[in-house]
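Ticket #423: bound-state structure for adenosine-5'-triphosphate.
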Amino acid sequence: MKPTIIDRNFDINKLHDSAVNVASRLNDKGFEAYVVGGAIRDLLLGKTPKDFDVATSATPEQVHALFRGSRIVGRRFQIVHVRMGRDIIEVTTFRGHHSDAENSNTAKQGRSGVLLRDNVFGTLEQDAIRRDLTVNALYYDPVEDTIIDYTDGLKDIDAERLTIIGDPETRYREDPVRMLRVLRFQAKLGFSIESNTKKSLTDCAPLLAQIPAARLFDEFLKGFLSGHAKPLAEILLQTPLWQELFPDSAQHIGVKPHYRPMLIAAMGNTDQRIHAGQPVTPAFLLAAILWPAVAQGLELALARGEPPIPAMQSVGQEVILRAIERVAIPKRFSIMMREIWDLQMRMDRRRHRKPLEFAQHKRFRAAYDFLSLRAQAGEDVSAVVDWWTQFQLEHPELESHRHQQQDEPRKRRRRPPRRRPKS
Ligand code: ATP
Ligand code: MG
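RESOLUTION: The complex was predicted; output attached.
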């Protein structure tokens, strides 16, 4: 197949020297090497890319040998991380088609077509058609100063359209995470999705169940902490993929009219913070995503006559345990989620006792923001929010206390963990 080759038509100043240096150095040593992926896509769209990928004919070992301080990482895909000053450039060897492999050690396919290992090396053309989307398969050649396009990616850039390379169903089967990537790029770029690429999303959604929970958490972070969480949530909620990622949320979100607006508002809030350069935590988003399940569980527990605070704790625990079967939320975040939930209950009960002490809880502000979003979404908690809003206005010292807390270095654990007595 003959590629389309055009002269570079993006601002070269926005392409990091380090990425070009890595590719040029490989070229000097007689290998083919190009800058590829999101960086070229974003440059063509006039955006400033944040990370850089290089594709080369050199093997991971050859790349590693050429760059001091580089590291070979990854199992499913072997990648070389090349450090150039402050940047890390991800260098991948051209991948071939797995069915061309004579040796089953380099490529391995699971029963449903999923690729378990994918380290078969190939040519530039093979590498292009192994990529996920046409807009992600554009190569910049630093030697010729041209863009190489095997998959009509340039047309899709112009048309602002996301198209899976090859047969979408086959490609989703090989790697179901591609479905999440398509929607992530839709949210980020505002592109439309080509009809076959879109149609197969619905059919293939259940394949996501095969993906390890740890990889889904990584993908969750990429999608939701990049400043486009709100459009992504709106998109995902319209597909069966939400059910695959957060079954408990999908099951309960329709029960009360305020659950969905609350979740969307939490996403919008995080996006704003990211754009303003403020710190964000995935715990806040996950607390909002799972809130419908927690609130419904709590309602049932209260109806059974359980006391509110222990009820909230046990419901929170159960919801987390179910959630981590699909998306592996690390402990430090799930602890924070449970604190935010617990405080929802306590804010109402404790405010008349020692409010100043209470407001110094390290999760108070997050819990207050969470409660405000619930009120905004139409839940009947406005009186509590107003009370705490007023209280904080009357106690400006709380703000500086919070900054101190954030600046404090992490405390070391003083005591060794207590052993459970043997039963
Ligand atoms: P971002 O802006 O999020 O970095 P990106 O397109 O660079 O977007 P990466 O995850 O950095 O995405 O991957 C780099 C490139 O590797 C992609 O552009 C794509 O060509 C290819 N790629 C990544 N993941 C897959 C996948 N699951 N299947 C096929 N190709 C992939
Ligand atoms: Mg990238």
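RESOLUTION NOTES: The first strand starts at residue 4 and ends at 7.
TICKET STATUS: resolved
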